[in-house]
Amino acid sequence: IWREYGALDYREWVADDVKVGKWTSFPRSVKLKSGETVVFSYITYKTRAHRDRVNAKVMKDPRLAKMMNPKAMPFDGKRMIFGGFKSLIGF
Fold it and tell me: Number of H helices and number of E strands within the chain?
């Protein structure tokens, strides 16, 4: 859906080599429980303003309505981490 509204890229990754760190790690950051795995995803946009425009359209899309119900989500949304990042090194 994000790509349909103009996002440059959308990727989802499932952890297969993510160990619990002594101080911090993906498992620690989400309080990973037995039988769970970490899923990491990212969306690429042209700019922050572009991100805001795309996300505004995505959030109004009726296909997401079912998924936005917290009881219908296949994960605990309270443990989800999200934010925006600026490119440090670009290709």
Answer: 2, 2
